[in-house]
Design a protein that fits this description.
Structural class of chain A: mainly alpha
Order of helices and strands of chain B: HHHEEHHHHHHHHHHHHHEEHHHHHHHHHH
Number of helices of chain A: 14
Helix content of chain B: over 70%
CATH architecture of the largest domain in chain B: Orthogonal Bundle
Shape of chain A: globular
CATH topology of the largest domain in chain B: ABC transporter involved in vitamin B12 uptake, BtuC
Number of domains of chain B: 3
Number of helices of chain B: 26
Radius of gyration of chain A: 21 Å
CATH architecture of chain A: Orthogonal Bundle
Strand order of the largest sheet of chain B: 1-2
Strand order of the largest sheet of chain A: 1-4
CATH class of chain A: Mainly Alpha
Shape of chain B: globular
Structural class of chain B: mainly alpha
Distance between the termini of chain B: 7 Å
Strand content of chain B: under 5%
CATH topology of chain A: ABC transporter involved in vitamin B12 uptake, BtuC
Number of strands of chain B: 4
CATH class of the largest domain in chain B: Mainly Alpha
Number of domains of chain A: 1
Largest sheet of chain A: 2 strands, antiparallel
Oligomer: heterodimer
Strand content of chain A: under 5%
Chain lengths: 357, 607
Amino acid sequence: MQRALPQQISDRFNFAAGVIWALRVIVAAIVVWGAVSTLTSGFYSASQWRDLFIFGLAQGGVYALIALGYTMVYGILGFINFAHGEVFMSGMMIGYFVADYLNEAGMWNGNPVLALLIVLVVSMLTSTGVAVLVERIAYRPLRESPRIVPLITSIGASFFIQYAFRGLFGAGVKSYPRMEALQGAITVLGVRILKVHVLVIVAVFIMMGLLYWFVEKTRMGKAIRAVAEDKEIAALMGVDIDRAIVMTFAIGGMMAGAAGLLYALVFNQVFFFSGFLPGIKAFTAAVLGGIGNIVGAMLGGIVLGIVESVGPILILSGLGIPAPHQLKDVVAFTVLVLVLIFRPKGLLGERLAEERD
Amino acid sequence: MAEIAPVPEKAPVIEDVRLKAPEVSLERAAKLGGVAGIVAVFVSANGMVQAFAERDIISGVLSMGYTLLFLVPLIMAYLAAREPPVLEGFEAPEKGPRNVLAGLIVGALTGLIMAIFVLVASAVDMRRVFINISPQLLELLTFGQGMGGLVFLVGGCLLTGAVGGLMQLAEGRWRRALWGALAWTLLIGLLEVIVAQLFRGLGLGFLSPLFYAGTGGLTPLGTAVVFVLAFLYYWSVVPKVDMWQRRYAHMPAERQRSVRLSLTVAAVLLVAILPQVLGPFVSEVLDLVGIFLLMGLGLNIVVGFAGLLDLGYVAFFAVGAYTTAILTSPASPRWSPEMSFWAALPFVILAAALAGIIVGTPVLRMRGDYLAIVTLGFGEIARLLLLSDWLRPVFGGAQGILKIPTLSIGPIVFRTPVDMFYPIVGFCLVAAYISWKLKNSRIGRAWMAMREDEQVAEAMGVDIVEIKLKAFIVGAVIASFGGALFATKIGSVFPHSFSLLVSITVLVLIIVGGLGNIPGVVVGTLALVGLPELLREFQEYRLLAYGVLLILMMLYRPEGLLPSKQWVRELHEEELMQDAWLKMEEDRRRAQAQAAQGDLPARPEEA
């Protein structure tokens, strides 16, 4: 970051700063106006808002789990692992085949807890395997290269994985079998919530708790943090850099694999391109929370999930825009652009090893 | 490469203390053999072998499927049999049976893994998961002979492995000629459409049946002729190119100019008759290649010159196409001024420049990799907005805008794909001229300085804000030309034509061709857009290949196939020094060998 004299800054960024200020005002005005006119119209009931919120929370939890992979890799290697969305998709896809098999064997509905655990383990192992393989083949040889090089490689890896899966498993959309135990809703603290959403929200919090414990309390977690802080010094202190980096990818993969199953339980369907949108949104979540910051990624994911679920209806329908749900992805991308423009350090601030240009 | 010339002069001569060069590692060969086996299984399991089996390269003898399968051990064996790089102070490596052995190991392992794959696949039905592992595939892999066919499969792998190893034994000139001949035979075998059309167009139609069997693929005679011709070309013509270049460099200025003039005239004539000779189908492909080339040239300015990784480039393409559609089409939903293409063009440029500013301004202060994601976001926003019901009254939603009039200049109407080729080439030339001019201008140098190091460039007085915006604007305008041409060529625009895949394709083109380098972009576009368009089987696996290419290019040749000199220097400083050393070493050996034969001791040529 350049820290020149204020005078110089004002000379140089006059135009850009002016535009950004204008943008800020316009965005705030649109959001406030849209929200106020939707709310005053009274078109949506309180329970509808609550359902949207809870759906957003479940969806956001999944984004948060994926975002952890982005943020940890960014923290340790300093580049965007574009292929992480495909890591997520691979777990979801292989999980589908196992779920399909279990369904045929009668276990999917016969013993749902065990079936879910089996699929969870398979999906996590698959994603971990893919993440570690990609690191080994595509990223490790490029650790010293200019940063644009591994970024381009990861774009290549992303497309390779997508179309390899398409070739191997076919292009069709695959539907997870229906799990009877997860149909319907239960009432928690007087609020009616779909069972799937309860499962997802609980699972997400457990996974995040485990991850937090791992990174903060275990030896390996400390090693990872040390490497993120400073590779050379960590190496001097006896940390095995390669191992720490592989572990980072493995943990990111595990979280993505778990997210894969949860996402599949909510949305049911998977095909080879399923990783792209959740991947980009999870990246948005990571940036929103402050990239490199693990707690930030969790928070960012949940905030983004809620904004994406509530936002289009709250803001866009108030502006008189027809079919606001079509613009759900536009809202997510707009959030990304706006965060990067106004607060590139994210909600909780970046935790980066060193200030990078 | 004048800058490396001093190295051989100064390098210390250590004639006596030379370490023995490391031998070809058999362990590495085993590893590569394993990789080759996995790759071979992968291309079989994802359906490529079977899909490609329908097209013959040599009619009735060799299908493209088998070619693909056996190219894997061939190339891997060739790589495994290559000596490890020679370091300073080592002897130049000796070639021998060990190279062939390494090749054989690769072939054997590939065969083994493939055999296991076939055995497992025929024992267990995996079709529910791997949809492409079908009985037809197994029949193909066993050559229709049942399990006895495995002998052919393994034998084929061993044979190609051995050939790959043997290729390493051949001297440099032979090796190049052999690979060149092989590649051209494959290409001519695949491109029956173009070649047969070319014969017809040139009035040599009687040649076609000699070369092509008519059922796809070359005749054996045709194969031999193509192979020999290509071999001779690489054997006798290619080595001279270097000499011609040197001779050209030593010519007086006016001779240089006349040579350049005649080459230009030849190129112009060639381009002018090309679509006429090739006919409408191939011209259609050429038009698309031209449009992608145009975008490649534009993105090359943004990514190659200025180093700003833009993943939403398709947005500018869409701006060009939709602006043209709205202004020229009578079916435009809201306004239909029904302008002509040329009257709309200034507005297209204006809209694109505006879009460039809109995308450029917020990302001015952003780090490189954030920029990639934000531009990606912009690209998707553009597509989703075009698709939405909200803006349907303007852009027509999913139905898009139809009835865009064909392009015309006065009385000349560019109706067919053959006609469209000329305006597209014209725009490409304009774009190439713009990028060539910009590259060697003050702003081009400022871009390069910014690409190297933003802060240093700023300290040197480069106005980062201004030049970043200019890069975005120029790139956007060039892409919008592409969009405008695309719209009038197709006659309609739909949001689905503007997906992220277009951005990725253009990025792959310029990265494979060589960032910052114009001829590189041309070659990249021809190979990566032209080939899959001509061969439908390729189309299916196009993006898979793009992904592999991006990874391999970044790992092994980040500067691209035809790189610009600056990028090579940035990425490979040490290797350049090493190459200089190797070249000196080789020259020394050659000089010694010639001296021993009693020839005049040749002076090592200076590169």
